[in-house]
Specification:
The structure is a homodimer of 356-residue chains.
Chain A (H helix, E strand, L loop, with lengths): L14 E5 L1 H11 L1 H17 L10 E4 L4 E8 L3 E9 L13 E7 L5 E6 L1 H19 L6 E5 L5 H12 L3 E5 L3 H10 L6 E4 L3 H5 L4 E4 L6 E5 L9 E4 L8 E3 L1 H5 L1 E5 L2 H7 L12 E2 H5 L12 E5 L4 H18 L3 E4 L10 H7 L5
Parallel strand pairs in A: 1-6, 7-8, 7-10, 8-9, 10-12, 11-13, 12-16, 14-15, 14-16
Antiparallel strand pairs in A: 1-17, 2-3, 3-4, 4-5, 5-6
Chain lengths: 356, 356
Amino acid sequence: MTIPTTATPPSDKALVPFVSVDHMMQIVHQIGLAQVLRDLTRYIEDDFKRWPSFDKTPRVASHSDVGVIELMPTSDGESYGFKYVNGHPRNTADGLQTVTAFGLLADVATGYPVLLSEMTLLTALRTAATSALAARYLAPKGSTCMAMIGNGAQSEFQILAMQAVLGITHIRLYDTDPESSRKCAENLAQSTLNIRICDTPQDAVQGAQIITTCTADKRNARVLTDNMVGSGVHINAIGGDCPGKTELAADILHRSEIFVEYPEQTRIEGEIQQLTPDHPVTELWQVISGAATGRQNDRHVTLFDSVGFAIEDFSALRYLRDVVAQTGLFLPLDMLADPDDPKDLYGMLKRAAPKP
Amino acid sequence: MTIPTTATPPSDKALVPFVSVDHMMQIVHQIGLAQVLRDLTRYIEDDFKRWPSFDKTPRVASHSDVGVIELMPTSDGESYGFKYVNGHPRNTADGLQTVTAFGLLADVATGYPVLLSEMTLLTALRTAATSALAARYLAPKGSTCMAMIGNGAQSEFQILAMQAVLGITHIRLYDTDPESSRKCAENLAQSTLNIRICDTPQDAVQGAQIITTCTADKRNARVLTDNMVGSGVHINAIGGDCPGKTELAADILHRSEIFVEYPEQTRIEGEIQQLTPDHPVTELWQVISGAATGRQNDRHVTLFDSVGFAIEDFSALRYLRDVVAQTGLFLPLDMLADPDDPKDLYGMLKRAAPKP
């Protein structure tokens, strides 16, 4: 008989399921990426429909000269979730990700965490699913072609979500760095998508019913200018997501119906930071729940000014919790002290002393 | 040669050191609890001395009928730390901890996490170290006897910190539940402390230069009444830490010199929620940095109205990071996606597909 170094191994209550990056990738491959994107869209849609039942607060940001670290909490009264996410545009120069993230889901009744997960991949997935969800409500019916402006880390996910959820068949790529476009096209070579790399953004938007912008420069860029946006188009603007970082010329905003996640946050971080604080916008959840109208006719320009919101992460964590229970792809993490007697934390420590 | 299921194992950049509850206990036993408490006191003291260099914000709380979940972030411009902590008084009835916690330290320059740790034990340790630090500046010189009112999960740590840092030799225990006092006395039986269990709080405070209150009921309790507090005493009030939860009769507050961590938070959560918002208090960091006077004479009653602040957790995480590097007692956690090319997150996912 061996003598354990700790008197009592941690009980189930002390163990939090942890989904690593490797587990997340295995989960995606086991379920299939298109199915994951469709599932996530459904979970996000369900949560947007019950939007008023969530505790909402703008993210808690800690800014520095080189980037930002944010905590994004929310709760539906039953579960509590938050995401840790950074944004450091210069990181790529050192071979690091611009954005990394992890998140946690907890039980409101006990305060005990029930899931810890990597969220760099999961954020890319939920961002793409949210875009596809918005496009399903806002893009012209029967859209088949999307222009993808900015072909970085998020681009393939955006494209595949639009394919999985909307049935998009044609993709037109543009990036200031042609190497990024080649990488994107190559990654998607085995899809059934018809993909074309374009030399200019003007060329990329030709014939596209949906224009997705997802560029990374932290400045007031003009990725799209007014003359590039024809009537009836849906713009899915992803890249403008912090003060001083926008992608669209203001002229476009003035002739668009604008849809946002959470106005309090979008007016600070989104494209509409260029507009007056009282410029009319529609909250996406109201369209999804039927309280507001989305696209009104075939000639309107609709704009989803997306900055990402905590409820989308909550939906993603909720989905992952359900999936993890089925797949078993997680590591039980000894993260919570769980003494036999809750009043006897010291006793637990004492009994863990190495035997002399 | 075996074919790995993922094309590339995660690089060092993707791995975050994680300190489990078991690792934390091993670390404490390896270094020695008294030494850990002294070390933590020094780290907290160092950070209190440079208090103005920290980003400070009241904790971000999500309240429910049965408890609260909080995020406590702070940054010194070089490192960023936050703690997740819950408070659920009714948890003990179900064999769960009232308070569980975990925390994270990150590099401000890159936004990358550098340490994830359990913090239920670490919070107990840092709370005790903070109390001892405050008492070193505020308690009468040569204090030898402490009354410990409330003998729950925090009590042994409070007592051992006062012994390790101040040289306290005599302890007088009181709890409404005598079983808790017996547990506490038994846990400390092998210490060199002279310990006495008392039948009443009046009895417990007899001859004590330091009175520590650490009770758990969520209500405006009167653990200490005015007649129980003689001149020259230092009160270390730990248990009042949220709106509606206090331990001291207001009379005591009116004849005490009051010291707090962060007034913006203590006025909401501490004993001083009973006083007018302009009642004078002194910030502990000012005493420690020499900018304000602590105890002025032998007859004054000093009160450390402690609610716990993010900088104490930051100090504890900073200490743990230094210790973990020496002891190697951690688990490398595959928490951050780290593609070879930061722009090619999808490529990383694709290459992780199971081989057909």
